[in-house]
Amino acid sequence: MNQYGKYNNLFNKIYKESQIQLDAKMSEHIYFKVGGTVDILLTPNNIEQLKETITICKQNKIPFYVIGNGSNILVKDGGIRGVVIKLCELNKIERVGNKITAECGALLKDVSIEATAGSLAGFQFACGIPGSVGGAVFMNAGAYDGEISFVIEKAEVLDDNQEVKVFSKEELNLGYRQSLVMQKGYIVLSATFDLTPGDKEKIQARVDALTTRREDRQPLEYPSAGSTFKRPEGHFAGKLIEDAGLKGFTIGGACVSEKHAGFVINKRNGTAKDVLDVIYHVKDEVKRQFGVELHPEVRILGED
């Protein structure tokens, strides 16, 4: 039973019908393609709508969760009670000189395309990361010897009091898969990246090379959330998992990819429980065999 659908009339006052979904299947909104329903899914198309939504939720004690492209999220089979605010429509990208400002819902690959079009180097590392700008700043996303902290100049965020603030790169306190935004629970609204003029052909060649490398080494043909675990200090998660003999380890429809052991994939219409059971088994085995603690990089939401 939908516990919060009764509040739908409040959201109808600020949203069009097309922006509201009751009992939305979260499996249709996250890359893992698993998970139960959320009571109300909202898709704001401007910051004022977002702020009003949060006000309504707080005033009526409705739990709410903010997501971007759903590429680094696992929703449990029991779904999510309350409201999910999906920011994919806040996706404007603007290039001025050597700088690109992108809203939180803009895809990293689209920012990379814009950078290449402007002959700007530095953002190529993100060309294959399937996430959005907001999530990337939230967790300081990175790949192929690059990360958001290398290129960001500032970020505009919404704080706990729904005030818009701007933080510099230094103030964002970006570290390995962490940031001030994550620590405080703020919401990223936009980010500005300071890039370097370069040769367009060389920039495109680097993008092409990274794209080929990603396609060759990662199980992109299956639903997943990318790298499942954070990199443990002094180790690589994928190598530890492979050395533990866990490539191909399967529970239900989920398994450790045989192509890249750092990926847990939804291979055969698995459930969120299947995915989580594989994750927990991998953690236990790596700890037992090597004494190394693995921590999931994927954000886990919802109830069993």
Describe this structure in words.
This protein folds into three domains: 5-86, Uridine Diphospho-n-acetylenolpyruvylglucosamine Reductase, domain 2 (2-Layer Sandwich); 93-217, Uridine Diphospho-n-acetylenolpyruvylglucosamine Reductase, domain 3 (2-Layer Sandwich); 237-299, UDP-N-acetylenolpyruvoylglucosamine reductase, C-terminal domain (Uridine Diphospho-n-acetylenolpyruvylglucosamine Reductase, domain 1). The protein is built from nine helices and 18 strands. The chain has helices spanning 8-12, 47-59, 108-117, 133-139, 148-151, 180-184, 200-217, 237-243, 272-290; strands spanning 20-25, 37-42, 64-67, 73-75, 80-86, 93-96, 99-103, 120-121, 142-143, 146-147, 152-158, 164-168, 187-194, 196-197, 250-251, 254-256, 264-266, 299-301. The strands form six sheets. The chain has a five-stranded antiparallel beta sheet with strand order 6-7-13-11-12. The chain starts with 7 loop residues before the first helix and ends with a strand.
Instruction: Please give the number of β-strands.
Output: 18
**Overall morphology:** globular
Strand order, largest beta sheet: 6-7-13-11-12
Q: Which structural class best describes the helix and strand composition?
A: alpha+beta
Helix content: 25-40%
Major sheet description: 5 strands, antiparallel
Radius of gyration: 20 Å
Low-confidence runs (pLDDT<50, min 5 residues)?
none
Please provide the ordered H/E string of secondary-structure elements.
Answer: HEEHEEEEEHEHEEHEEHEEHHEEEHE
